[in-house]
């Protein structure tokens, strides 16, 4: 196989124009493939009210992903709702106090205000439901995780240190290869400076 046919083979697989020349279209597709970035889902129909209430707290680029995940789960017979979205720093501090300064409570987070990926509009948590029953544990979370990753979301179920199956986030492209803590530092800096999280 010569170089041109190699490029053509790659182009066919990427679904871009097949011309044997690796121009910007081909390179963008390669970068997206390698970095795991996927084109944003088209705006999809609104979902249930509880999910929509939480989706409304997310940055605009993240919202179609959250709806697409609800629809994708539905399509395979799994009912999920978005049960948590963006938290203010004060709300995060109140969560952080659980299991620490609030008596008779269990720890629910290791992040203070400004140090959670939920403070910046990129992250949301889902719950699996069967009818009206919320299931905090279910094998279905893994199935939803796979669907989320197909959509281009990062899934907390892949994390080694804090395995978090209900958690999804849309990493900005600049954060693709960054450790989570570095990304959160940069998101906090951008929020303080009033600059776009995704720019
Ligand atoms: Zn989460």
The CATH level-2 architecture of the largest domain is identified as 2-Layer Sandwich
Shape: globular
User: With helices defined by DSSP (H or I, 4 residues minimum), what is the helix count?
Assistant: 7
CATH fold-level assignment of the largest domain: Muramoyl-pentapeptide Carboxypeptidase, domain 2
How many separate domains?
2
Largest sheet: 5 strands, antiparallel
Which helices and strands occur, and which strands form pairs?
Layout: H1 3-14, H2 24-35, H3 49-55, H4 63-75, E1 79-84, H5 89-97, E2 123-130, E3 133-135, H6 140-151, E4 154-155, E5 167-169, H7 180-193
Antiparallel strand pairs: 1-2, 2-3, 2-5, 4-5
Helix pairs in contact: 4-6
The structure holds zinc ion (ZN).
Zinc ion is lined by residues 118, 123, 125, 164, 167.
Concise description?
With 199 residues, the protein is α+β, with helices and mostly antiparallel strands.
What can you see in these coordinates?
With 199 residues, this protein is of the alpha+beta class. It has two domains: 33 residues, no CATH class; 145 residues, Muramoyl-pentapeptide Carboxypeptidase, domain 2 (2-Layer Sandwich). Helix content is 40%, strand content 11%. It is built from seven helices and five strands; from the N terminus they run H-H-H-H-E-H-E-E-H-E-E-H. Strands 1, 2, 3, 4 and 5 form a five-stranded antiparallel β-sheet that branches. A hairpin with a 2-residue loop joins strand 2 and strand 3. Helix 4 packs across helix 6. The chain is globular and about 70 Å long. The structure holds zinc ion.
